[in-house]
Amino acid sequence: MSGRSTRATSAVDRLKQRSGNAQYSMARTGAGLFFLSEGPGKPPLCAPLELDDFVAFVNAQGPQTPRRVSKLDVAFEKQLIKKAP
């Protein structure tokens, strides 16, 4: 498996975990483009996409995980607000 398909597969695996739908399936065309479907044999959810576009599309699907915010991040944001004109 190439690094390209590993990156795409990882994105689909994260989507499966976030959504709870283990049926999501990725396919690759002969031209090296990727598309996503809700299960084997189901219609594609997107047109065939380049790797970066495909990963961005898959990451935007399903429920999103909240961004982790540390105490340092909160303190830094407060400093930015104080210094803003």
Question: Could you explain how this protein is built, in words?
Answer:
By secondary structure, the protein is mainly α. Helices cover 47% and strands 9% of the residues. It is built from three helices and two strands. It has helices at residues 3-19, 51-60, 71-83, and strands at residues 25-28, 34-37. The protein has a two-stranded antiparallel ribbon with strand order 1-2. The longest helix has 17 residues, at 3-19. The chain is elongated and about 55 Å long. It starts with a helix and ends with a helix.
Question: In a nutshell, what does this entry contain?
Answer:
This protein is mostly helical and 85 residues long. It is 47% helix and 9% strand. The chain has helices at 3-19, 51-60, 71-83; strands spanning 25-28, 34-37.
